[in-house]
Design brief:
Layout lengths: L6 H8 L25 H16 L3 E3 L8 E3 L2 E3 L3 H22 L6 E5 L8 H14 L3 E5 L4 H6 L4 E6 L2 E6 L6 H12 L8 H14 L5 H11 L5 H12 L1
Parallel strand pairs: 4-5
Antiparallel strand pairs: 1-2, 2-3, 6-7
Helix pairs in contact: 2-3, 7-8, 7-9
């Protein structure tokens, strides 16, 4: 297949809700003109190699199938939504790597993936971030998620917690298990029953931001206001740690 400029095709396809991970990866409307999957022909070997390394399996598109059937695990049928999502991610990243980074001699790229874990099983959600970082080292990933498994599986990254208007930056390496990550989710979504004084929430947030290099002028103002409050000895200790870090 001749290599076209797929920019408009990708943007058009990805913005349509009835296409994004909701229809079969290899057949949308059957015209082969409106979907990212028309790139598959020249990305096939790279996609299959990545897919096999992650899943331990390969698939084969059935020639002439207008329904998008594949041969997978010795049977004819359709890839699950999770496998389709994995294939799409690989194809778009391979496209971006070749057409935007390599051809233009760009050393570094930023990639934003919203809800990376959507349609992925917990096992693949846990594997996917280290896998992408290993195989696409020219890319820096910004990923949104509601998956404890994805966070627990990530390594060497900042975990940015958005809670209403508050922002807290954590080191993801400090959260190795799903149960540890769940504590953060419980705090954000209000499912826990432990009442933590607001001042301690603010101190925790300020300390984490200072440790992880996310300190802002607003954080400095919040710290100065806290120092004007009556603080317990342990809270005073945390304030000193923040100032001295």
């Amino acid at each position: 297949m001749r290599r076209h400029d797929y920019k408009n095709t990708i943007i058009t396809a990805r913005l349509q809700e009835n296409i994004f991970n909701l229809t079969d990866t290899f057949s949308c409307y059957g015209t082969s003109t409106e979907r990212i999957e028309e790139m598959y022909g020249w990305l096939e070997e790279k996609v299959q190699s990545l897919f096999e390394e992650l899943t331990g399996e390969r698939f084969r598109i059935i020639p002439g199938s207008i329904l998008g059937e594949v041969e997978f695990k010795g049977e004819i049928g359709f890839l699950s939504s999770g496998y389709q999502a994995i294939v799409r991610i690989f194809m778009e990243l391979l496209y971006y790597q070749e057409k935007c980074l390599l051809e233009r001699h760009i050393d570094y790229g930023m990639v934003v993936i919203d809800e990376l874990d959507e349609f992925l099983s917990p096992g693949y959600a846990r594997k996917i971030v280290p896998f992408l970082k290993e195989h696409f080292q020219q890319m820096e990933f910004v990923i949104t998620t509601h998956s404890c498994d994805l966070v627990a599986g990530a390594k060497n990254a900042n975990l940015i917690v958005l809670d209403d208007r508050d922002l807290e930056v954590l080191d993801v390496n400090d959260y190795q298990s799903v149960s540890e990550v769940q504590i953060i989710f419980d705090r954000i979504f209000g499912t826990h029953n432990i009442q933590v004084p607001e001042i301690e929430n603010v101190l925790r947030c300020l300390l984490n931001n200072k440790i992880n290099g996310a300190w802002t002028s607003e954080d400095q103002i919040r710290l100065e206001h806290l120092q004007e409050e009556w603080l317990t000895p342990s809270q005073q200790l945390i304030c000193r740690q923040i100032m001295e870090w």
